[in-house]
């Protein structure tokens, strides 16, 4: 009843880990890599066989034989705990190739999820049950799995039809990727069904703290991170700059040159909107979270100066605001030798260009 089997396929040797096989993970280790059985078959040059159960061998036994032995044991012992027969290691009934999962893609605090044409990010710490726990962040809302199903696929079931990396949530619960709360759970997530409508971190700086929550979208902000800053005596109902911009009536289209020559005072909200987008993108970029990241990029340090100038009304025209942004981009491109920083700068330039054209409705 061995847990590791030396196996061969074609001209390649490897070690099959029985527990990983039965857990439907990549289970064969060879030449420093992990393989699914069908991948190891290709690695061994036997891809034309297209039947790994007979082309992968342990000693003189194809894996198919070990699988059949396991089936016999289950029948003989009437589904009782497995026992070895004639010293053969037992493999559970053969999973299909596509059922063998690389579990590493499900590590981390969040999971990308899809259902029909809908998509979002599932935050594990918010997950509870189908109807409790607003754990799926879409573009516009925090939703429970059942809410997400109703929006994306009303006739579906959340365990089966919400997928992450191709696997249904039901399977991820069985694999302990997600922890399902008990029916009588009295934790805050299960008890307060109307809570957690907004983000738990600031949309701009991506950190926790005393946050002001928008009443129209899931975003939340530190009062000093938002543009304009949120005053303490603000009324109970509050809308962030993104939502205010969304409700603004369309203005006549203009050329870029016309826009640049107009006083900032006429387009203060537009400039605040653009800068908030850049600050958000710079702080949530993966390389900004790497320990030792320099921060000299057009991120919080540099863009913070533009934010201060905008708050102090130091810009006369839109051109001056744009010039400062472009100067930061150019300085970062010429001074940075770090590929991650260069990539991030290029991405922010593209974000700024796209948002500028959209928000000003250029001809």
Automatic annotation (TrEMBL):
SMART domains in UniProt: BROMO (SM00297), PHD (SM00249), SAND (SM00258)
Pfam families noted in UniProt: Bromodomain, PHD, SAND
GO cellular component, one term: nucleus
Residues in Bromo domain copies: 290-343
Domain SAND: 1-73, 98-179
Single GO MF descriptor: zinc ion binding
Cross-referenced InterPro entries: Bromodomain, Bromodomain-like_sf, SAND-like_dom_sf, SAND_dom, Sp110/Sp140/Sp140L-like, Znf_FYVE_PHD, Znf_PHD, Znf_PHD-finger
Domain PHD-type per the UniProt entry, residue ranges: 199-246
Keyword entries, A-Z: Bromodomain, Metal-binding, Zinc, Zinc-finger
Protein name: Nuclear body protein SP140-like
């Amino acid at each position: 009843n061995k847990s590791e089997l030396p196996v061969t396929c074609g001209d390649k040797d490897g070690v099959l880990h029985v527990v990983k096989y039965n857990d439907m993970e990549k289970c064969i280790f060879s030449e420093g890599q992990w393989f699914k059985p069908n991948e190891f078959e290709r690695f061994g040059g036997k891809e034309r066989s297209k039947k790994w159960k007979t082309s992968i061998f342990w000693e003189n036994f194809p894996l198919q034989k070990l699988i059949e032995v396991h089936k016999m044991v289950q029948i003989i012992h009437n589904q009782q705990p497995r026992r070895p027969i004639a010293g053969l290691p037992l493999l559970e009934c053969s999973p299909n190739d596509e059922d063998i999962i690389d579990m590493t893609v499900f590590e981390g605090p969040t999971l990308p999820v899809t259902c029909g044409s809908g998509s979002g990010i599932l935050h594990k710490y918010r997950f509870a049950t189908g109807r409790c726990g607003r754990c799926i962040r879409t573009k516009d809302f925090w939703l429970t799995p059942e809410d997400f199903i109703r929006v994306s696929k009303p006739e579906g079931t959340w365990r089966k039809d919400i997928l992450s990396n191709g696997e249904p949530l039901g399977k991820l619960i069985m694999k302990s990727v997600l922890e399902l709360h008990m029916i009588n759970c009295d934790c805050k997530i299960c008890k307060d069904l109307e809570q957690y409508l907004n983000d738990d971190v600031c949309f701009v700086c991506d950190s926790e703290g005393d946050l002001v929550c928008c009443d129209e979208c899931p975003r939340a902000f530190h009062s000093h991170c938002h543009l304009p800053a949120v005053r303490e005596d603000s009324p109970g109902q509050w809308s962030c700059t993104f939502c205010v911009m969304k409700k603004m009536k369309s203005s006549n289209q203009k050329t870029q040159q016309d826009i640049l020559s107009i006083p900032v005072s006429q387009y203060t909200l537009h400039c605040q909107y653009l800068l908030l987008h850049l600050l958000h993108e710079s702080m949530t970029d993966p390389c900004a979270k790497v320990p030792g990241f320099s921060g000299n990029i057009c991120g919080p340090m540099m863009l913070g100066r533009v934010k201060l100038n905008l708050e102090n009304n130091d810009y006369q025209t839109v051109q001056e605001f744009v010039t400062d942004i472009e100067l930061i981009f150019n300085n970062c491109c010429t001074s940075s030798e770090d590929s991650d920083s260069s990539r991030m700068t290029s991405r922010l330039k593209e974000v700024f260009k796209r948002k500028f054209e959209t928000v000003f409705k250029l001809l």
